[in-house]
């Protein structure tokens, strides 16, 4: 092959790389009618605030140990009617008593914020007359979306008319312009206080640790993991006798590992019954380095208003836990046997 042919081939290859690079860097194609409502980047985006009659949700990234984590601030304004006294009319409903909660957001929260960097609308309608504003459900709507980006704050009224295919609209309170809201964003906003919250107890998996330390009832026991690469057939054994698997310890650990939160408490928030007293602590380590932990505690369930004059049954206890990943305490699936069995596991050296 001649030098000229090599040069031509090299030039073609270089041109192909340039085309591939520019294609990769190019912004995704948008629909013909799509418009940018707020032109901001991920780093320029601040707080996204949503409010309706029953809830307030703020979503933003915060520095957490040198890493940017999505956090949610959620306030439940749902009115709750206290129990009525016999022979008296029911008292008026009042908002729920608990304060706003600060919670971690998970991957859906990251995707949620990505919709605002930049914030696009499938279609813009300009400034509409009062009749059209009312028709689109924007006249007396209590729903608000506020976006802080690039040093400014933009507020929008959210409206959803009946009988028009379920579309949702935005009206900029500053200039009166109306936009169509994407269905994905509309759905995310309405379920933000539930769908965006991180409900994981840990971010690591069973193959990530080789040692488990159980502390309960004043006892401590070291367990080692074998066959940890297989999350379904791994085994646990006392550190002193690693070749003798303890099936009871493994079955107990499966309960601990599969605990699921039924209610997420905010950062610094305590259960209604007060601070849980830690009864069990389980630590996970690999090569001498702790990678995570979980603490379990019981709290007496709050008093319930009696429905009759008969004596109230004994109050059950609620199970709470916290881990290296949770923002604070979480209410768990109420299997109190995990606490009772932990003392047996810890004492079985």
Topology:
Elements lengths: L2 H23 L9 E4 L6 E7 L3 E10 L2 E10 L2 E2 L13 E2 L5 E4 L2 H8 L4 E3 L1 E5 L2 H6 L8 E6 L2 E8 L8 E5 L4 E5 L1 H8 L1 H4 L15 E6 L2 E8 L8 E4 L8 H11 L3 E4 L12 E10 L2 E12 L16 E7 L6 E3 L4 H11 L2
Antiparallel strand pairs: 1-8, 2-3, 2-10, 3-4, 4-7, 5-6, 9-13, 10-11, 11-12, 12-13, 14-15, 14-18, 15-16, 17-21, 18-19, 19-20, 20-21
Helix pairs in contact: 6-7
Quick one: overall form?
globular
Largest sheet: 9 strands, antiparallel
In terms of per-residue confidence, which ranges show pLDDT below 50 for 5 or more consecutive residues? Answer: 18-29, 304-309
Q: How many structural domains does the protein architecture include?
A: 2
Annotation field: number of helices: 7
Span from first to last CA? 76 Å
Q: Name the helix and strand elements from N-terminus to C-terminus, one letter apiece.
A: HEEEEEEEHEEHEEEEHHEEEHEEEEEH
Oligomer: single chain
- The structural class is alpha+beta
In which order are the strands of the major sheet placed?
Answer: 7-4-3-2-10-11-12-13-9
User: What's the β-strand tally?
Assistant: 21
Index terms:
single chain, 349 residues, alpha+beta, 2 domains, eight-stranded antiparallel β-sheet, 7 helices
């Amino acid at each position: 092959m001649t030098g000229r042919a090599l040069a031509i081939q090299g030039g073609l290859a270089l041109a192909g790389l340039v085309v591939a690079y520019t294609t990769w860097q190019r912004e995704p194609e948008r629909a013909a009618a799509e418009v940018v409502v707020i032109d901001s980047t991920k780093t320029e985006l601040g707080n996204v605030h949503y409010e309706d009659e029953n809830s307030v949700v703020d979503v933003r990234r915060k520095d957490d140990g040198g890493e940017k984590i999505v956090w949610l601030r959620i306030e439940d304004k749902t009115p709750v009617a206290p129990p009525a006294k016999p022979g008296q009319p029911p008292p008026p409903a009042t908002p729920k008593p608990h304060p706003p909660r600060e919670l971690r957001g998970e991957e859906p929260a990251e995707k949620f914020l990505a919709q605002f960097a930049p914030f696009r609308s499938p279609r813009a309608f300009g400034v509409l007359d009062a009749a059209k504003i009312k028709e689109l459900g924007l006249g007396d709507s209590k729903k608000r979306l506020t976006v802080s980006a690039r040093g400014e704050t933009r507020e929008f009224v959210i409206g959803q008319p009946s009988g028009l295919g379920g579309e949702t609209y935005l009206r900029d309170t500053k200039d009166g312009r109306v936009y169509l809201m994407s269905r994905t964003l509309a759905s995310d906003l309405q379920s933000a206080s539930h769908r965006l919250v991180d409900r994981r107890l840990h971010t690591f998996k069973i193959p990530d640790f080789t040692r488990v330390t159980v502390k309960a009832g004043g006892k401590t026991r070291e367990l080692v993991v074998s066959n940890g690469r297989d999350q379904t057939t791994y085994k646990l054994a006392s550190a002193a006798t690693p070749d003798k698997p303890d099936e009871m310890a493994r079955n107990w650990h499966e309960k601990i590992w599969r605990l699921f939160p039924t209610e997420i408490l905010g950062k610094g928030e305590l259960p209604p019954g007060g601070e849980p007293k830690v009864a069990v602590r389980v630590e996970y380590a690999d090569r001498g380095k702790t990678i995570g932990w979980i603490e379990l505690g019981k709290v007496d369930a709050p008093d319930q208003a009696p429905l009759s004059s008969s004596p109230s049954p004994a109050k059950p206890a609620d199970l709470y836990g916290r881990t290296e990943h949770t923002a604070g305490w979480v209410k768990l699936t109420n299997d109190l046997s995990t606490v009772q069995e932990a003392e047996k596991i810890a004492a079985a050296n």
